[in-house]
Every structure is written in C-alpha cells, then in structure tokens.
C-alpha cells in the first residue's frame, strides 16, 4: 500500500470512494506501504474533499508493526489481467481500499482494530498471490483470493459486503450489453432513458420506435466497441456519446450542409430530381427538405452557414420578376422599383417564415425536430439585409396565435467591426433588431467575427449548437467550411480524475494520461467506424452533395474525412469541479487554481494535436454540451465517492470551462474569467450570461455584446422569457421538483404556458419535455449576473 506526501496533509485513505471490484488498476506507486489513517476517521462525517476536510483531521500514523503487509519483491513482477484484456501492475492499495470501503459501510466507523484486521488480510492476500503466481493473474482470481482470506479470518460480514459489491458490478456490466434489460428499462419509462434528450417527445410513436432502436443499438454498440473503451464508458471514466446510433450504424455526427452547392446544381431526394430554385420561396422549401433528409442520416445537428448570403441570389430572382411585372403593368416609371422592392420584401418574409414553420413541424426518423442552426449577419446588399431583418422579425413575432418562442432553428447572428458593431456602421440597425430579438426570445446568440477567426482559424457558424470546424483549405487553396462534418465525440470525466487523485496533482496528471489513451482509442474507433459507411448508406450526404462532393456509390467516404477535412472531438466537462477538488469551492480568484485548469486544457489540446499528426484526422478539443451527461457523470461519481461538497453534492457537473452557475459575477467579470479557455478548446465552446428581464433595457445587453467582441468568440443570452397564458405573467417561472410553474397563478400546464430555458447550446421547453434531474438542478441553481427584475406582467 502506498501513500504520497501532499504537503503535510497526511491522510490518503479514499474510504468508501473506491469501487472494490476494480481491484488492481493504475500505475504502481513507488516505495514502501505507508498508510496513514485517523482512528476516528469516518468519511460520512467529514465529506471526502481532501483539500477541505483533511487539514481538520489529525491523522495517526499507522504503527510500524505491520511490515508483513508490504508487497514482497515477487509481487512487483505480477501483472493483473483485467476483464477488458488490459494488463496493469498489481497494486495492493486497491484491495486495501475496497476492504476499507466495505468496513466503513458496515460499521460506519474506522477504528484502529478494524484497520489492523484489514491490513492483516491484505498481507495474507499478498502472500497467497506471491506464492502462487509469477507473472499474470486474472482479476477474478485476485477477488477470489480476497474472499477466501476474509472467510479464513472469520470476517464474515466484511466478506458478504465485498462479495456483494462484486456481484453488483458484474450485474451492471452484463446488464448494459443485454438487449432485454435495455428494452425493459425503456418499457418502464426509466427517466434517464426517456428524458435523455430534451428535444425528443417520448410520448409519440416514432420517438418510441427511435428509443427502442436506440436501446438495441446501444447494447450492440457495447459489444462492438473495443472492450476497454466499453468498460471505461460503463464505469463513467469516459462517455462515448450517441451510443444509441454509433457505432452500431457508421453514422457521422454533425455538419455544415453545403446548401449553396446543392441548390445551384440541383439534387435528388427519394425518387425526385430537384431542379435549382428560381425564387426564394422554392429555395427555402428545398432547404427544409434537405435538412429533414440530412437530419435523418446523421445523429447530431446541422447548420446553414451565412444564410442571408446563401439566399440572396434567389431573392434577386424574385425582384427581377416583380420588376418585369411593374414595367409591364405600371405606367409611372418612378414606381417600378418601389413596387418590386415591396413585393420582394414580402416574398422574403413569407419564405423565411415558411422555413421557420417547416423546421418546427419537421419530424425526422430520429423522432425529433432536427437540430438546426442558421447563421447570418455578414451580408450588406439590400437583399441580404432584408433576409437578416426577416429572420429576426419572424422570431420576434413568435409562433402561432400565442406567439410562442421558437426553439428551432437556433439563430446565430455575427457581429463584425465596421459592419454592424458601432453606431454609424452600415448594418448597425440590424444589430439593434438582433438585440431586441435576444431580449424577447433569447436567440440569436452572437459570434464575434474577428475573435472566432483568431480561435478557430476561419469564420463559420458552429455545427449544431457549438461544434466548430477548424480552418481548412482544399487542394486549390480555397478556405472551405460548407460540406464538412464532425465524426463524433468522446468525453473524459475530469471531476472523477480529480476525486481519485485525492489532492495529489501528480496522480491527477498520471490518471489523466491513462484516461486520454483510452479516449484516443475510442476516437480512433469512431473514425474507423465512420469510414465503413458507403455513399449508398446516406445518398443525401455523400452522393447529392450535402457533404460538398458528389461521390459515386462505390467511392470511399474517407475522401471527405481525411487530411483534416472532418473533425473528431475529445470532449471534457467540469473544470470547476476539478479545481474545487484541489483548491476548494471558491477558487475563481486563485491564480494558481486558474492556471491549473488552463494547464488541463493545454494538455488536452497538445494531445489532440499529436493525435492529428499521428492519424491524419483533425482531432479537436470540445466543450461538451453535456445536456444529460452532466447528470450521468455526477450520479455515477456520487455512488463512487459519496456526496462531496461543491462536486457531487450538486447532482450536476458544471459545463466545460463555465463559471460556477451558483455565483454571480457581473457579465464582464464572467467573460474576463472565461475568455482564456476557448483558445485550447477550439473544437467547440460557448459562453453565456444570465440576465434579468432585458426587454426594457436592450442597451444593457448591447454593452455586454460590445465588451465580448474582442474577448470571446461565441456568446449566448439567458434571460427570463417564460409566459403564462392563464394570467399573462412573463418572466422567470418558479422551479419545482421536476419542472417549473407560474409564480403568479401556479400554472404548470404546458398547454397554457411557454417555458424556455437553455438546456445546452440550444434552448428547450422543459415543461413540455422534462429534462434529466441533474440538468434541472443546474438550471435551478443559475444566478443572475446582473441586478434587475425577473418577472413582469404584460405582453412582449
Ligand atoms: Zn400564471
């Protein structure tokens, strides 16, 4: 057994923190066993955050009379073969920790006598292993020896507890690959299954079919994955995203659809050849058809880049037709242009409104409204400006007679210096409209043109809610964004590593290294699996041009992935919790703590760059949205480590590099704090600030946008826009156990209220479609970053 010195903090026992069945993993510590423990130590009384609870304790050093527990030299040569086939050094600390955990659970107190008994049992286990094994020992053999040692020492209750853990772990392991179990979970409407994606209405038939297919796909996916990747996912060390689709199907994740190429060339959907459109109404109708098909052929979001510039040529065709009509029917020549402009403006508005309704009424084969984002704002001519205006005005007007807030498409407006940022700029008026829209509907989120290029190497809207392609030029030297895609995400559970390290930074780094190797293998597997698709699997993507080229049905899809054209992402979560584990919960002002969190992202960034060179694909660091992962990781870690203050006690993990949502820095302080992180996570990021009601005060929001321009690349607005149609309240609904209700009349019926919260980079309607517990807790914990009213009666 081993301890590392941690600057005077003399204890090291993880107590109930360990999963006892992972008996031997990790690198062997150097040196002699030297466990120290407090006689009265109880993890239940103190919490287990070492940086907080440890100094309050007065650990007693273990007496010197137990050297028999030291690993004999022979043990050093022994490797443990884990269930997933990995061979790791034998480490008797794991046996010790498992037994301490079991003992604490039974007796609730760790006395010197109990401790002594455990040390003796570990010594017996070591002797037995050293006597019977020379090189490899299988993990279950270690566990059998521990069980026998316990029985021989008449530690029956301890044995029972230890065997219980083992059995539970074995059950959990087989259940996740058992299709029957997955389906039973689904039929019993397990909330972690049916509410995993807040955009899916799990009451309707085709969502239920999708969830069933997903449960089966997940179980099969686990059998396909490399065993150590599947195992790490099941334990919660990493998260292999979208297992319900991939790797079962060789699907890609998200993309920027090459609309310009498809519309100008014409394309084919199903049995129909589609001609290039000759009006903006036809163009937007085709766009919604393309979106429906693309969204059914991949599992993540899709985006339209520079929508105003994309559609302007088609609006110009409308104008030409109206001008010709005017010349034919109107005698007064001075009226011609005004007539054509007015008719075209109306066409643009109708076309953009149809697009918004189409997207909101579309239902993909995935059983959900497609995740769509529209980027716009850089165009300067009359048509482009009119399209920008229409997009914003339609969103402000709302959906239907109740004027509900549209959740899709996500709108992303681009701010650009000398274009729309400052008074006097040609598109400053459109920025004002965007501000009004954000105060009333939360969208548009804003991109800062110059900063985005600085961080990601080129300008483009994110794929889906926040995934950014990196700057890339084709063989002819053209900067290309449209038609590119992401191949998938695997997220590493950083807070768990911090909890396992128990205050020891060196241990944190070595565990991180170990987890990143597994994550790399998982990502390489994603790439290899995506390459197994054929163009015939998804004609809309590969044959008809959504991915920017028209491949023959037998071509290799890898043409579109390799040499940095696609990205594949290493995700992360919970930098706040990581630093809280080492520096306490209020570390934001601590320069050393901040540097530590930046060093973590730098390490991730350096690894992805090295992998990109090694494999020829663009690995990027991604600030995972973790809409439901925030719940899963913290739930698993709470089981493993107990309720740890500021870490697992909240039931959610903080998104990526975000400021602790329970604190209330000003928006300016928050942005200054967060701005250093996206540089090392350029594969995906978003900042947001929490505001009070802003509808009377758009200038306050403008001040933040302006401040953000030179600091962050991508900023969202969270402001109270919930509406009660019973009593006409507007503002922040009051959180309840599972949802939200009107603070004035208590109404919580989704039919007569409209509750809009930011669930990740997207908005969601939590009242209509409940979220997982952890996400609900996170939203409830959010504190405003500005003073002001959070509700008012009255209309928009
Ligand atoms: Zn009400």
Automatic annotation (TrEMBL):
<dbReference type="GO" id="GO:0006260">
    <property type="term" value="P:DNA replication"/>
</dbReference>
<dbReference type="InterPro" id="IPR012833">
    <property type="entry name" value="NrdD"/>
</dbReference>
<dbReference type="GO" id="GO:0031250">
    <property type="term" value="C:anaerobic ribonucleoside-triphosphate reductase complex"/>
</dbReference>
<feature type="modified residue" description="Glycine radical">
    <location>
        <position position="761"/>
    </location>
</feature>
<dbReference type="GO" id="GO:0008998">
    <property type="term" value="F:ribonucleoside-triphosphate reductase (thioredoxin) activity"/>
</dbReference>
<dbReference type="Pfam" id="PF13597">
    <property type="entry name" value="NRDD"/>
</dbReference>
<dbReference type="GO" id="GO:0009265">
    <property type="term" value="P:2'-deoxyribonucleotide biosynthetic process"/>
</dbReference>
<feature type="domain" description="ATP-cone">
    <location>
        <begin position="78"/>
        <end position="173"/>
    </location>
</feature>
<dbReference type="GO" id="GO:0005524">
    <property type="term" value="F:ATP binding"/>
</dbReference>
<keyword id="KW-0067">ATP-binding</keyword>
<dbReference type="GO" id="GO:0004748">
    <property type="term" value="F:ribonucleoside-diphosphate reductase activity, thioredoxin disulfide as acceptor"/>
</dbReference>
<dbReference type="InterPro" id="IPR019777">
    <property type="entry name" value="Form_AcTrfase_GR_CS"/>
</dbReference>
<feature type="domain" description="Glycine radical">
    <location>
        <begin position="663"/>
        <end position="788"/>
    </location>
</feature>
<keyword id="KW-0560">Oxidoreductase</keyword>
<keyword id="KW-0547">Nucleotide-binding</keyword>
<dbReference type="InterPro" id="IPR001150">
    <property type="entry name" value="Gly_radical"/>
</dbReference>
<dbReference type="InterPro" id="IPR005144">
    <property type="entry name" value="ATP-cone_dom"/>
</dbReference>
<keyword id="KW-0556">Organic radical</keyword>
<dbReference type="Pfam" id="PF03477">
    <property type="entry name" value="ATP-cone"/>
</dbReference>
<protein>
    <submittedName>
        <fullName>Anaerobic ribonucleoside-triphosphate reductase</fullName>
        <ecNumber>1.17.4.2</ecNumber>
    </submittedName>
</protein>
<feature type="compositionally biased region" description="Polar residues">
    <location>
        <begin position="50"/>
        <end position="70"/>
    </location>
</feature>
<feature type="region of interest" description="Disordered">
    <location>
        <begin position="47"/>
        <end position="70"/>
    </location>
</feature>
């Amino acid at each position: 057994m081993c301890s590392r010195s941690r600057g005077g903090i003399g204890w090291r026992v993880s107590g109930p923190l360990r999963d006892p069945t992972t008996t031997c993993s990790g690198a062997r510590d150097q040196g002699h066993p030297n466990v120290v423990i407090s006689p009265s130590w109880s993890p239940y009384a103190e919490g287990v955050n070492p940086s907080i609870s440890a100094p309050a304790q007065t650990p007693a050093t273990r007496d010197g009379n137990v050297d028999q527990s030291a690993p004999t030299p022979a043990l050093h040569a022994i490797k443990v073969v884990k269930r997933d086939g990995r061979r790791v050094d034998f480490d008797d600390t794991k046996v010790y920790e498992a037994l301490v955990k079991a003992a604490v659970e039974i007796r609730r107190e760790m006395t010197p006598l109990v401790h002594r008994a455990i040390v003796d049992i570990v010594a017996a286990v070591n002797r037995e292993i050293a006597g019977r094994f020379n090189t490899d020992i299988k993990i279950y053999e270690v566990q059998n020896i521990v069980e026998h040692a316990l029985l021989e020492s008449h530690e029956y209750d301890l044995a029972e507890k230890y065997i219980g853990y083992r059995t539970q772990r074995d059950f959990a392991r087989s259940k996740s690959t058992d299709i029957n179990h997955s389906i039973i979970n689904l039929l019993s409407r397990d909330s972690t299954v049916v509410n995993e994606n807040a955009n899916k209405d799990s009451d309707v038939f085709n969502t239920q079919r999708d969830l069933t297919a997903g449960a089966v796909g997940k179980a099969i996916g686990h059998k396909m994955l490399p065993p150590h990747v599947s195992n790490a996912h099941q334990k919660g060390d990493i998260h292999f995203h979208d297992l319900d689709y991939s790797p079962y199907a060789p699907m890609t994740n998200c993309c920027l659809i090459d609309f310009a190429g498809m519309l100008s060339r014409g394309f084919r959907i199903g049995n129909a050849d589609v001609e290039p459109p000759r009006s903006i109404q036809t163009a937007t109708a085709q766009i919604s058809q393309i979106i429906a098909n693309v969204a059914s052929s991949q599992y993540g979001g899709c985006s339209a880049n520079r929508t105003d510039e994309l559609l302007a040529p088609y609006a110009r065709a409308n104008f030409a037709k109206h001008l010709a009509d005017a010349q034919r029917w109107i005698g007064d020549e001075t009226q011609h242009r005004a007539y054509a402009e007015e008719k075209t403006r109306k066409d643009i508005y109708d076309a953009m409104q149809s697009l918004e309704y189409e997207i909101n009424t579309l239902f993909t084969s995935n059983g959900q409204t497609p995740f769509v984002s529209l980027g716009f704002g850089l165009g300067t001519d009359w048509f482009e400006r009119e399209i920008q205006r229409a997009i914003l005005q339609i969103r402000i007007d709302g959906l239907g007679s109740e004027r509900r807030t549209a959740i899709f498409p996500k709108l992303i407006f681009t701010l650009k210096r000398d274009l729309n940022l400052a008074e006097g700029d040609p598109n400053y008026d459109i920025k004002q409209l965007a501000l009004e829209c954000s105060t009333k509907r939360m969208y548009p989120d804003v991109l800062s043109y110059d900063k985005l290029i600085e961080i990601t190497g080129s300008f483009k809207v994110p794929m889906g809610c926040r995934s950014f392609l990196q700057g890339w030029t084709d063989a002819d030297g053209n900067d290309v964004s449209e038609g590119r895609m992401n191949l998938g995400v695997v997220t590493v559970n950083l807070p768990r590593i911090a909890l396992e390290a128990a205050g020891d930074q060196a241990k944190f780094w070595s565990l991180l290294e170990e987890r990143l190797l597994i994550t790399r293998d998982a990502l390489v597997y994603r790439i290899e699996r995506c390459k197994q698709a054929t163009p015939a699997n998804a004609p809309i993507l590969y044959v008809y041009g959504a991915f920017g080229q028209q491949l023959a049905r037998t071509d290799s899809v890898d043409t579109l992935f390799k040499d940095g054209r696609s990205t594949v992402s290493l995700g992360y979560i919970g930098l706040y919790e990581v630093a809280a584990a080492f520096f306490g919960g209020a570390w934001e002002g601590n320069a050393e703590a901040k540097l530590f969190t930046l060093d973590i992202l730098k390490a991730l960034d350096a690894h992805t760059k090295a992998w990109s060179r090694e494999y020829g694909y663009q690995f990027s660091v991604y600030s995972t949205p973790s809409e439901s992962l925030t719940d899963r990781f913290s739930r698993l870690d709470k089981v493993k480590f107990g309720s740890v203050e500021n870490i697992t006690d909240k039931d959610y993990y903080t998104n990526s590099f975000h400021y602790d949502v329970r604190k209330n820095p000003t928006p300016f302080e928050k942005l200054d704090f967060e701005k250093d992180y996206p540089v090392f996570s350029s594969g995906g990021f978003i900042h947001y600030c929490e505001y009070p009601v802003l509808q009377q005060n758009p200038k306050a929001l403008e001040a933040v946008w302006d401040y953000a321009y030179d600091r962050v690349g991508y900023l969202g607005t969270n402001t109270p826009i919930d509406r009660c149609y019973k009593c006409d309240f507007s503002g922040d609904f009051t959180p309840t156990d599972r949802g939200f209700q009107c603070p004035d009349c208590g109404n919580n019926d989704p039919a007569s209220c409209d509750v809009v919260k930011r669930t990740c980079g997207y908005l969601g309607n939590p009242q209509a479609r409940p979220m997982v517990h952890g996400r609900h807790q996170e939203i409830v914990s959010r504190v405003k970053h500005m003073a002001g009213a959070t509700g008012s009666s009255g209309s928009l």
